[in-house]
Amino acid sequence: MARTTGRSTTHLTRRLVQLYVGLTLYGASSALLVRAELGLEPWGVLHQGLAELTGISIGMVSIVIGAVVLLLWIPLRQQPGLGTVSNVFVVGLAMDGTLAVVGDVDGLGFRVPVMALGIVLNGVATGLYIAARFGPGPRDGLMTGLNRVTGRSIRLVRTAIEVAVVVTGFLLGGSLGAGTVLYALAIGPLAQFFLRMFALPESAGPGVTVASGEPSTTAPPAGSGPVADPASGQAILPQ
Fold first, then answer.
1. What are the C-alpha distances in Å from 120 to residues 5, 37, 124, 189, 238?
2. Is residue 44 within 8 Å of residue 174, measured between CB atoms?
3. CA atoms within 13 A on the CB side of 38
């Protein structure tokens, strides 16, 4: 019994470390994309546009938007997890902290590597955070909730949300560019690779055998219909 309890505690500790390291790296990677000035990820475009409009830091805008999106879970009857709530705050704080440390990057010869590093780190962060299985981010919960309520495919719902976010952000002054396109093309393969790398076996209780170390929930096939709500402690897609 003592050995089983010790293993469970170690397993939980590792999951918590993965969660918070992943969320911190996520915020840091988004900050690097800001410094590269070659285009941001879709939600980053909106955050930057609102930051330009309001004068609030982009990290604080990310926190506010995350909280607002989380409120939209209520009518969709989505259930947040520890990772969901942590996502709202940790990513924005890490983003502002990184921007305070990393200054402006001058010259295309430096900005391109910074952009590439930001995209790769975002993939690492995604793998760490999702594999920890503490719940989806607010924006992904919105997507899966709308998928369930409307009956529309994940592909259609995700595309509609991100197009709306990018267009709104761009109109508000957010940055679109090569980084936005490269992020869209690379984040899927990177996330899949790092999800496998950081996958954790599920904690097994007495008499329970865990057959696989893969994350317990994965993205449904493109174009699929409604999906079930993620169970508590699970995540579906990166923020």
1. 36, 16, 6, 10, 13
2. yes
3. 23
Instruction: Give the CA angle between residues 19, 22, 24 to the nearest 5°.
Output: 110
The token duo for 82 is 């520890």
Q: Measured between alpha carbons, how far is 67 from 112 in angstroms, rounded to an integer?
A: 32
Question: What are the Cα distances from residue 47, in Å, to 21, 84, 161, 183?
Answer: 22, 18, 14, 16
CA dihedral sign, ordered 132, 135, 141, 143: positive
pLDDT tens column, 134-182: 988 898 888 888 988 999 887 888 889 989 999 999 999 999 999 999 9
Per the CB < 8 A criterion, the answer to whether 124 and 116 are in contact is no
Kindly report, residue by residue over 58-115, the tens digit of the pLDDT. 999 999 999 999 999 988 888 889 999 999 999 999 999 999 999 999 999 999 999 9
Neighbours of 224 (CB within 10 A): 12
CA distance 134 to 97: 24
The model's pTM is 0.80
Residue with tokens 């996958």: 199
Query: What SS3 class is residue 218?
Result: coil
**What number of other Cβ atoms are within 10 A of residue 31's Cβ?**
24
Phi, psi of 21 (to 5 degrees): -65, -40
Which pair of tokens denotes residue 186? Answer: 């690379």
Token pair for 47? 């955050």
CA pair distance 204, 190, nearest whole angstrom: 29
CA angle 170/176/182 to nearest 5° reads: 145
The answer, yes or no, to whether residue 225 has pLDDT greater than 90, is no
